[in-house]
Amino acid sequence: MKKIMSLAATAALMFGLGVSGVNAEEPSSGKTYSLDISVPDEDNTTVGGRMFLDEELALEAVGTLRINNEDKDAGVQDGTRLLVTAGIMKYFSKARVSPYMRAGGGIEILSGDQYNRDTNLHAYAGVGAEFMITEEFSLRASANAMIITSPFTITTGTNDLTLSFLF
């Protein structure tokens, strides 16, 4: 719950800065790609990238890896989770603070004693904002809804805070 509240506060601050008239230069103009890094929690590492098709559209690809080593004292079983997703992002405006919506899908590959299934399919949609720190670095915050095929679940609380390097 703390993580959701801090992401909501960050997004609200980003949207507020954009509305209050921060210099609306286009710091990302001329940048075609980004390298995105996020650590959503202590067990996951997420690395991805974007390719900007124009000022309003970007394709994204993300990989998330989670490895658990067995710890009988803590009740943790062996398990590896690899989630690979691809999607599209639509920016509403390109300024220092840029709100966007995103959608996509992916595949999750599971192995080990911790998981009772080998593969899941995912679909997601969400909204967020990107704050340009400099011309090369940005911070993104997103709130997403995710649908997972098996067992069929809808998760509404997924979110991320991502540092991006644009080049």
CATH topology: Porin
Query: What percentage of the residues does DSSP assign to strands (E)?
Result: over 45%
Tell me the series of helices and strands, N- to C-terminal.
HEEEEEEEE
* Major sheet: arrangement of strands: 1-2-3-4-5-6-7-8
* Average predicted confidence as pLDDT: 80
Global Rg: 17 Å
> What characteristic shape results from the CA principal axes?
elongated
- Reading off the top of the CATH hierarchy, the class is best stated as Mainly Beta
Low-confidence stretches are 1-28
Tell me what you see in this structure.
- This protein has a single domain (2-166), classed as Porin (Beta Barrel).
- The chain starts with a helix and ends with a strand.
- An eight-stranded antiparallel barrel has the order 1-2-3-4-5-6-7-8.
- Helix content is 11%, strand content 57%.
- Residues 1-28 have low confidence and may be disordered.
- It is mainly beta and 167 residues long.
- The chain is elongated and about 50 Å long.
- It contains one helix and eight strands.
- It has one helix spanning 2-19; strands at residues 33-38, 44-52, 57-68, 79-91, 97-111, 119-132, 137-148, 153-166.
Keywords:
167 residues; mainly beta; Porin; eight-stranded antiparallel β-barrel; disordered N terminus
Give a short summary of the structure.
By secondary structure, this protein is mainly beta.
Ordered list of secondary-structure elements with their pairings:
Layout: H1 2-19, E1 33-38, E2 44-52, E3 57-68, E4 79-91, E5 97-111, E6 119-132, E7 137-148, E8 153-166
Antiparallel strand pairs: 1-2, 1-8, 2-3, 3-4, 4-5, 5-6, 6-7, 7-8
